[in-house]
DNA sequence: AATATCATCAACCGCGAACAC
DNA sequence: GGTGTTCGCGGTTGATGATAT
């Protein structure tokens, strides 16, 4: 057992410490071209004097596309606090609820700032239920669907754990089956025009590790432990992609499509949800600003679409 | 200006789980 | 079933910059 295997290969001296820009470039280029596959072979093939573990960490925490850098918003902090109260130090699980944030980043932020904040709050004996993030705790701990569906505020999306559908009833498979309580804040629309549909997204989409590579479009990562089977992706100059949803455990098909035009300007991501037939489909569109930080590695561009998502109280996010 | 202390964050380490043989 | 390998997670460390004395 253990992680000694890589290190003990005939005393190959692995470099440690901070990564240089050249090393970053080598690693990024290699993974963009070939995917990471087996991490232990990545440094060998990429010509790096690092061990696979170090490469994996560097990719996950720093080079992976879609990472959000910078200060944590108050909403993110609230989410961390609420989830930490429920999950404890499960940084990896917490990070799944914060698109673009890594577990390491969240862990650091906790130890450097949030932990003290909590201690201070406890010292002043503020009841946890009065904190603004109690709604997040509610969906974590409650078994009531009505609790899940109640939108916490006009400015915040409704968050629904995917486990709800596994534990209760299957999710709606068509647009018409969606509970208006969720999508229209309780307002039915019998015969009139369908109200503006909410943005719909899964946190998993925000992890590019969920994307499956195709021969035409070698892409990073291929695995998803929850069985989210990918479709195809093309990160060429015209960034576009189609991703199949989970069809094995009762969840409906969901195909996020995104496309970045060559003319520049604003990018968009269209999310289409269907029951598998072409006849009953609805879609919503995300917008995200052109990110100047989009990497250009060997003519592949990354869409940093996590950075500027703004979900509102009319939106639903499956976590 | 020099030094000490604190805060932040990238990276390392060790462990356990999952998997392959 | 036993052993080795790989991966992912969480705790911890150490370098660096900011701030206080």
TrEMBL record:
| Provenance organism | Linum tenue
Q: Segment Disordered: which positions?
A: 119-138, 144-191
What is the name attached to this protein's record?
A: Uncharacterized protein
Keyword list, A-Z = Activator, DNA-binding, Nucleus, Repeat, Transcription, Transcription regulation
Occurrences of domain Myb-like (ranges): 11-63, 64-114
**Where does the record place a coiled coil?**
none
Give a yes or no for keyword NADP in this entry.
no
Q: Which GO terms describe its molecular function?
A: DNA binding
Question: Residue ranges of the HTH myb-type domain?
Answer: 11-63, 64-118
Q: Mind listing the GO biological process terms from this record?
A: positive regulation of DNA-templated transcription
| Compositional bias annotation for Polar residues | 122-138, 144-153
PROSITE patterns (UniProt xref): HTH_MYB (PS51294), MYB_LIKE (PS50090)
Instruction: Name a GO CC annotation attached to this entry.
Output: nucleus
Q: What is the lineage of its organism?
A: Eukaryota, Viridiplantae, Streptophyta, Embryophyta, Tracheophyta
Its localization reads: Nucleus
């Amino acid at each position: 057992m253990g992680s000694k295997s890589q290190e003990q290969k005939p005393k190959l001296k692995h470099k440690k410490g901070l990564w240089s820009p050249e090393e970053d470039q080598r690693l990024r280029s290699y993974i963009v071209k070939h995917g990471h596959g087996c991490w232990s072979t990545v440094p060998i093939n990429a010509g790096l004097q690092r061990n696979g573990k170090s490469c994996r960490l560097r990719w996950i925490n720093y080079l992976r596309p879609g990472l959000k850098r910078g200060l944590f918003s108050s909403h993110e902090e609230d989410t961390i606090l609420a989830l930490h109260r429920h999950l404890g130090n499960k940084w990896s699980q917490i990070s799944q609820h914060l698109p673009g944030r890594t577990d390491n980043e969240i862990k650091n932020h906790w130890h450097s700032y949030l932990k003290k904040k909590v201690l201070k709050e406890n010292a002043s004996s503020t009841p946890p239920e009065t904190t603004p993030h109690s709604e997040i705790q509610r969906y974590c701990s409650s078994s009531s669907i009505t609790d899940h569906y109640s939108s916490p505020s006009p400015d915040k999306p409704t968050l629904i754990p995917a486990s709800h559908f596994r534990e209760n009833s299957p999710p709606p498979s068509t647009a018409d089956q969606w509970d208006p309580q969720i999508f229209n804040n309780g307002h039915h629309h019998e015969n009139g025009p369908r109200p503006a549909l909410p943005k719909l997204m899964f946190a998993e989409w925000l992890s590019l590790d969920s994307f499956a590579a195709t021969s035409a479009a070698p892409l990073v990562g291929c695995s998803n432990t929850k069985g989210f089977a990918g479709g195809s992706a093309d990160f060429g100059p015209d960034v576009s992609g189609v991703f199949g949803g989970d069809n094995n455990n009762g969840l409906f098909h969901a195909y996020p499509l995104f496309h970045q035009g060559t003319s520049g300007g604003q990018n968009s991501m269209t999310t289409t949800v269907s029951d598998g037939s072409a006849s009953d489909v609805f879609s919503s569109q995300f917008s995200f600003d052109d990110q100047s930080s989009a990497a250009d590695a060997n003519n592949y561009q990354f869409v940093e679409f996590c950075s500027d998502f703004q979900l509102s109280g009319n939106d639903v996010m499956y976590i």
